[in-house]
Amino acid sequence: MTSFDLNETDSTYELHADVETYHQGGTWYTRRCDSPEPFASGASRLRLIAIGVEVARWNGLRHVIRDPDGTIAEINTYLTGPYPSRAPTGHQRVRG
Predict the structure, then answer these.
(1) Structurally, how many domains does the chain consist of?
(2) What are the DSSP E strand ranges found in 1-96?
(3) Are strands 19-24 and 62-66 parallel, antiparallel or unpaired?
(4) Which residues in 51-68 are b (16+ Cβ under 10 Å) and which e?
(5) How far apart are CA 21 and CA 61, in angstroms?
(6) What is the pLDDT along the chain (96 residues), one digit of tens a residue?
(7) Residue 96 in 3-state DSSP?
(8) Strand 40-42, strand 90-93: pairing
(9) Containing domain of residue 57, as a range?
(10) How far apart (Å, rounded) are the C-alpha atoms in residues 22 and 16?
(11) pLDDT above 90: percentage of residues in the chain
(12) Domain membership flag for residue 47
């Protein structure tokens, strides 16, 4: 997994297997960062975040949530296991 330094700009992050929820062209998308294609899209931000949480939770990945302007708003870390926790094991709120 990628490590994040919150003192760096968003453009310096290299995301690999993490899950990302982002906004583009009036639509919300969720994708694995190692793939250019989103696996879910729609108009509801909360629905796409929920989908991203489930994928990150079951795969033991981080879920990066971006604001509509593209800046990182939250980074949540999930661990995998036979009964993964619904709550993130790590949480970083980047903006306000």
Answers:
(1) 1
(2) 19-24, 27-32, 40-42, 62-66, 72-77, 90-93
(3) parallel
(4) bbbbbbbeeebbbbbbee
(5) 13
(6) 344 444 444 544 555 679 999 999 999 999 999 899 999 999 999 999 999 999 998 888 999 999 999 999 999 988 876 665 566 666 666 665
(7) coil
(8) unpaired
(9) 13-76
(10) 15
(11) 55
(12) yes
Say which amino acid occupies 22.
Y
* pLDDT for res 87: 61
Dihedral sign (CA 59, 62, 67, 73): positive
Pick from 26, 84, 28, 96: nearest CA to 55: 84
Q: Is residue 4 part of a domain?
A: no
In a domain, 63, yes or no: yes
